[in-house]
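Justification of computing resources. Each target in the renewal requires a structure prediction run like the one illustrated here; the chain below, 534 residues long, is used simply to show the kind of job we budget for.
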Amino acid sequence: MSLEDLDISNNFLDSHIPMEIGASLPSLLYLNISGNSLNGSIPPSIGDMRWLRSLDLSENHLSGGIPEKLTMGCSSLISLTLSDNNLQGEIFSEKFSLFQLEDLNLDGNYFFGSVPKSLSNCFNLYSIDFSNNNLSGRIPSWMGNMSSLQHIIMPNNGLEGPIPINFCQLQFLRILDLSNNNISGSLPSCFSTGQIIHLHLSKNKLKGSLTTQFCHISSLVTLDLSDNQLSGNIPDCINMLGELSYLILKNNNIEGEIPSQLCKLQKLSLIDLSQNHLSGHIPSCLNLTTFDELYGKGESFVSISGTPMEFENTLSIGEPVHFTTKNMEYSYKGKILSYMSGIDFSCNKLIGKIPLEIGHLSKIQVLNLSHNILVGQIPSTFSNLVQIESLDLSYNNLGGKIPPQLVELYFLSTFSVAYNNLSGEVPARIRQFATFDESCYQGNPLLCGKPMKSCLATRPPPMIQEGPTQGREDDGLIDMGVFYVSLIVSYIMVLITIATVLYINPYWRQAWFYYTELCCISSYYFIVDHLSKP
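Resulting structure tokens:
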């Protein structure tokens, strides 16, 4: 019996793949050598495995290109996975016979050139992953004619031009990830007719406004349009996105107020509206949860066919979501993403007080309201944020004291209230707060206590209260009667002292009368010379 299935993945194999592997195992249907340390090139003899249906050589150190003999000989291949190697060159040559392909994963390599046109004849292809390569050129419009496509994943390349309008024909498209390219133009309004679950278009050059057409993508779970040049307001109809869990719109030119309709999104987990031009108040009705809390407890998640999907399967569908926490941007995906919940409204023009209700969002790990114009006090309800890891309220106009109850936030590792108008004593240096240095509080001159200046040095001297004194003026601090008596006595004492000295010393007495006479004569002639009439 000939071997049909060979799986030696996730071992410690090194060296090369045998060059004659295809001739030795011509009847193989499934070959998986992923997760090893193999180097060298892909043997062309794999093209001799004409019955091969699945080939996985991912997570090795393979170099070179994809052999032309493989693309011509393996005509039965359904799944090809060469991810995370050192492969390079153009993806496929013109000689191509892999027309049965359904799943193609070439991410994490150094392929260059354009998206190969040879794929246009793969009518069964439902998933393409070309992420993290060096592809360039425009996104081909013929991809919109591949009606079976469900996943188009091509982030971190050099693709340019607009999103083809033909993509509107992809009725079964579930994931579209074109983030971190040079995509320009506006957002296609026709996406409303599809069944997209995850839409990632961040870090491009998209312009225009958020049209109301997005509000009709009822299946949308992830909407990431961050780091573009989008403008306008967040549409009020956003409450129609009932499945939306991750809303990332940071670093655009979006203006207006944060719509209260966001409060109707009962499955929202992460919301990032930072680095925009939003104004107005923070809605007090925001309600955030976690993906795991919903779907880990039996909540249904409907697939494009209308049937419920298992929780673990829904986690493997999505692409990474980038979110800033602890002053750094992290990439969250899969199971980890399902536990994430947070709010980032930083770097806007939000005004008013921080709603007390924010303190009841006990599941959030991140809250960033920095660089706004918020006033009022820090809500004491923040002590209920028992899962919080990063809390940033810096660069606002907050006043009052820092609630001492915040020391009960055991998971808090990043904290800043710098550059506000806070006063009083900082929370006790216990638990997590023992790790926060002076930079977390700087810019608040009325704050005191470790690690700031001592509170004793900032207290004013106590006022001495005096009882009523007989004969003292009610509106002054000096007894005027005593003052006048002291003045007269001092004057008399000076006169007596002068007379005594002149009486005892005849020389001083003679000099005194001489100078007195001289002053009188000088005064007389001064008056005669200046005041007498001519």
